[in-house]
Specification:
alpha/beta; three-stranded parallel β-sheet; 127 residues
């Protein structure tokens, strides 16, 4: 099932909500403990929840407090990604190709890393 979306940010917000709900209802994550792994240099939109996991000071300055539950790791660092995933991880949210700060391609290992941890892997379009 694919719910209708108007914007990319709305799609990301829906992916976040879906991953968290899945984590609580299916994976058994304790209430309020769902964790989503994101990567440095991401750009998924400008909503308050989305900028909560941004590392761009222009996107975050004077807009807090931010939505909790996100852990940021270096882009393309499979070892850091693997280390960040734990029993409360419900998703790894990343762009396969980042475009906001110059084209960067992530490792294809991301799918294998996430699959072994029973986390979902929403991938968003390039910026």
């Amino acid at each position: 099932m694919a719910p209708p979306m108007n914007t990319g940010a709305e799609a990301v917000e829906t992916a976040i909500k879906t991953a968290r709900k899945w984590g609580y209802q299916v994976k058994g994550v304790p209430p309020g403990q769902a964790k989503i792994i994101v990567v440095d240099g991401n750009f998924h939109g400008r909503t308050v929840t989305i900028v909560s996991f941004s590392d761009d000071p222009k996107a975050t300055a004077e807009f807090g407090p931010f939505t909790p539950g996100f852990v940021r790791v270096p882009f393309g660092d499979g070892d850091a990604l693997r280390s960040a995933i734990d029993d409360n991880t419900v998703a790894v949210l990343l762009e396969p190709i980042q475009g906001e700060r110059g084209a960067q391609v992530s490792s294809p290992r991301r799918r294998a890393i996430c699959g072994r941890s029973a986390s979902c892997l929403p991938l968003t379009a390039c910026s």
